[in-house]
Every structure is written in structure tokens, then in C-alpha cells.
Automatic annotation (TrEMBL):
One Pfam assignment: BPD_transp_1
Subcellular location: Cell membrane
Organism of derivation: Paenibacillus gyeongsangnamensis
The name this protein goes by in its record: Carbohydrate ABC transporter permease
Position of the signal peptide: none
Keywords: Cell membrane, Membrane, Transmembrane, Transmembrane helix, Transport
Membrane topology: Multi-pass membrane protein
Length: 280
């Protein structure tokens, strides 16, 4: 390797380190600030020294307050429950709809699929008010149903499953039908076991989308009983002050949990996304 090549590689590595630092700096600052006393959080910000990144006095008071005074355990349960129910029913309904779009022939199929594609291109703010009216008429405001059901039918999930199912050979389904297998049997015993990568991808998308959801849970819930983590974090900012150490502690928890799920499953996630190209 020549000297010019080594210089180019060194420059690339340096640039990657700088970009990584810029990306990780907010997370590092949040973690450090969450274990500082409230009065020390911005004490060492300017000028930037080693004390900016290494706390001199470590305290877990912010995390303790979250679970003893803020009832954060209930908030985490609500968020997990809502995300899990959305994943279970979202994968089930999305995969069945995609199976119909990929392997069945019926009038208006392409028009309906076009409408499905449009659904995940429309900003949520456009449908928030009519969606609230519909959920209110059903009596689901301030219930788990009101948070979960609108997120179950996801157009992007249907698209991913449909593109994956198009790659599955029709001969596999035809041979199962000739052996007397029902469509339910084919779906549960043949199609879904072969769809592990795209199922993991869809499940992670639904989970992270619901975990990070703020606007709709804020609109659809009124009581603390159904409060989720993104809405709960808004409680740390009041008219007169912001409880920064507890806000940073809640932010760290909200960030770490999806990462812990994504890291061990990233291989399936990438495989599921890359295997769903544009097909007809």
C-alpha cells in the first residue's frame, strides 16, 4: 500500500471518528447528566473540559425519583404493552393482507395496493383530527384500544411482506393445495416459517414506531393510567423550570431499550429489508 493510500485511509478513519463522536455526543452527555446532581448538569458545559464528560459526583437520584415519585414503572409497562400488542396484531394483519396481495387474484387488487402505498406517504398530522373523531365515536379515547388499533394496519409493513411473498414460488403453494392443505394451513405452516427475516424487520419497525410515538398517544389519552414514555417525558418541563437530570434519565431509558432489541436482531432486520426490493 502506497503512502498516498495510507493518507487517504487515515483521513477516512479520522472523518468516521469525528462523525461518530458528533452522533454519540448527545447520548454521552445525556448519560453523564442523568447521574449528576441537578445543579451540576450545565456547570461544566463552558468551557468544555474533562469534567464535561466525567461527573465528579455520581448520584442515581434521578433514576430513583423516576420510579418512586414519577410512577415510571407504570409508564414503561404501558409503553411495552402498547408496542407489543401493536407488533403482534400488526404482523398478523399485515402479513395476511400482503399474502392476499401477492398470491391471490381479485378485481381491483392493484388499486387497493396503490391505496395501501399511499397510506404510509400521508403525514399523520393530516389524519389526526378525523382519526380522533372516529376513535371517540367508538368510545376508545383513554383506552389501550385507542392507542393500539390505529397503528395496527401499517402500509409499510404490508408492502414489505408483499414484496417478500412475491419471491416465494407459486409451485410451493400449489403442491400444498394438491395435498389438501387449507389456506390457513399454508399461511401458518409454510408461508410464515419462511418469512423470519421480513417478520423481524416488520416487528422492529412497528415496535420502534410505537415506542417513539408521541402525538397520537398524547391526543388519545387523558389520564396518567395510559401514559406512555414519550408523553411522560414532557412532564419534566414545567412553566417555571425543567428537571433536567430526570429528563435525561428518562431519555436514556427511552433510547437504550430499543437499541437493546435492535442490536441482536439487526442481521435479520437488514436481511428482511434488503430482500424486499421492487418487484411486480
Amino acid at each position: 500500500m502506497g503512502r498516498a493510500s495510507r493518507r487517504v485511509n487515515a483521513a477516512v478513519y479520522f472523518l468516521q471518528i469525528v462523525v461518530a463522536f458528533l452522533i454519540l455526543f448527545p447520548l454521552l452527555f445525556a448519560i453523564v447528566s442523568s447521574i449528576r446532581p441537578l445543579n451540576d448538569i450545565f456547570k461544566y458545559v463552558s468551557p468544555v473540559t474533562w469534567r464535561t464528560f466525567l461527573p465528579t459526583g455520581v448520584t442515581m437520584e434521578a433514576y430513583e425519583h423516576l420510579f418512586t415519585e414519577r410512577n415510571f414503572g407504570t409508564v414503561l409497562f404501558n409503553t411495552f404493552y402498547v408496542a407489543l400488542m401493536t407488533v403482534v396484531f400488526g404482523v398478523w394483519i399485515g402479513s395476511m393482507a400482503a399474502f392476499a396481495f401477492a398470491k391471490f387474484h381479485f378485481p381491483g387488487k392493484h388499486v387497493l395496493f396503490g391505496l395501501v402505498l399511499i397510506t404510509f406517504m400521508i403525514p399523520f398530522e393530516v389524519i389526526a383530527i378525523p382519526l380522533y373523531g372516529l376513535v371517540n365515536q367508538l368510545g376508545w379515547i383513554d383506552t389501550y384500544y385507542g392507542i393500539v388499533v390505529p397503528a395496527v394496519a401499517n402500509g409499510l409493513v404490508i408492502f414489505l411482506f408483499r414484496q417478500f411473498f412475491l419471491d416465494l414460488p407459486d409451485a410451493l403453494i400449489e403442491s400444498a393445495r394438491m395435498d389438501g392443505a387449507s389456506w390457513v394451513k399454508i399461511y401458518t405452516s409454510i408461508i410464515m416459517p419462511l418469512s423470519k427475516p421480513v417478520t423481524v424487520s416488520a416487528a422492529l419497525m412497528l415496535f420502534i414506531s410505537q415506542w417513539e410515538s408521541f402525538m397520537w398517544p398524547l391526543i388519545a389519552t387523558r389520564s396518567k393510567q395510559y401514559k406512555v414514555i414519550q408523553v411522560a417525558m414532557s412532564d419534566f418541563s414545567t412553566e417555571h423550570a425543567t428537571i433536567w437530570n430526570e429528563l435525561f434519565a428518562a431519555s436514556v431509558i427511552a433510547f437504550i431499550i430499543p437499541i437493546l432489541l435492535l442490536l441482536p436482531l439487526q442481521r435479520f432486520f437488514i436481511q428482511g429489508v434488503t430482500n424486499t426490493g421492487v418487484k411486480e
